[in-house]
């Protein structure tokens, strides 16, 4: 078995199979095996490469689902990277990123594996050197599906896009750069999120 862990506090374990089957060996409440991004990533990698090998995948998920931190996308990216090695496909990272885009707009950045400025739908990545930082993860007890936020009619679509030059110009300044258009929508739809944001704003 091959074990892979990444910075998002998840654990993925893989055992090779010779029959070509891809199976998730543990249950994930609320997520059918066929809908699991890990399983979908493995099967997509097979389809894209013609690989006849398979794998058993065990997922030890520690981030709350629906937390908006890209946990599922990070899982999928880890599967692509790990099985690329386990199956000895030797695909370059750029090819894995192209495959990752078919799974979701934010999957390529996790394959990229570095802090990056993203443009396009998330596939145009430029590496960034960022200072060390500490983060607090708050679990307000509610799942926030990304699809619902993006489908919300009150989500603004007219925010002026920022460029990497704008980001670089703001480096070192004390105020925060940019604005999160999704936060207001999530706060309105989910009072628990609004309460958490209010508590954190007072820190």
Report on this structure:
The chain is of the alpha+beta class. The chain has helices at residues 37-49, 71-86, 93-101, 107-112, 146-151, 164-170, 181-189, 191-201, and strands at 2-5, 11-17, 22-24, 54-60, 116-119, 124-127. A four-stranded mixed beta sheet has the order 1-2-4-3, with helices on one face. It has a two-stranded antiparallel sheet with strand order 5-6. A hairpin with a 5-residue loop joins strand 1 (2-5) and strand 2 (11-17).
Question: Mind sketching the topology for me?
Answer:
Blueprint: E1 2-5, E2 11-17, E3 22-24, H1 37-49, E4 54-60, H2 71-86, H3 93-101, H4 107-112, E5 116-119, E6 124-127, H5 146-151, H6 164-170, H7 181-189, H8 191-201
Parallel strand pairs: 3-4
Antiparallel strand pairs: 1-2, 2-4, 5-6
Helix pairs in contact: 1-2, 2-3, 7-8
């Amino acid at each position: 078995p091959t074990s892979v862990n990444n910075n998002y506090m998840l654990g993925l374990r893989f055992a090779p199979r010779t029959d070509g089957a891809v199976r998730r060996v543990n249950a994930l409440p609320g997520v059918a095996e066929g809908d699991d991004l890990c399983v979908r990533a493995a099967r997509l990698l097979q389809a894209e490469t013609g690989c006849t090998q398979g794998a058993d995948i065990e997922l030890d998920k520690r981030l709350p689902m629906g937390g908006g931190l890209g946990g599922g996308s990070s899982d999928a990216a880890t599967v692509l990277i790990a099985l690329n090695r386990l199956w000895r496909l030797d695909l370059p990272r750029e090819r894995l990123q192209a495959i990752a885009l078919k799974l979701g707009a934010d999957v390529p950045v996790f394959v990229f594996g570095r802090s990056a400025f993203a443009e396009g739908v998330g596939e145009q990545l430029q590496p960034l050197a960022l200072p060390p930082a500490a983060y607090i993860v708050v679990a307000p007890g509610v799942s926030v599906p990304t699809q619902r936020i993006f489908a919300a009619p009150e989500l603004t679509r007219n925010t002026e896009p920022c460029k990497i030059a704008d980001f670089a110009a703001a480096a070192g300044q004390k105020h925060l750069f940019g604005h999160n258009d999704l936060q207001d929508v999530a706060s309105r739809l989910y009072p628990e999120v609004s309460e958490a944001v209010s508590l954190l704003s007072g820190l």
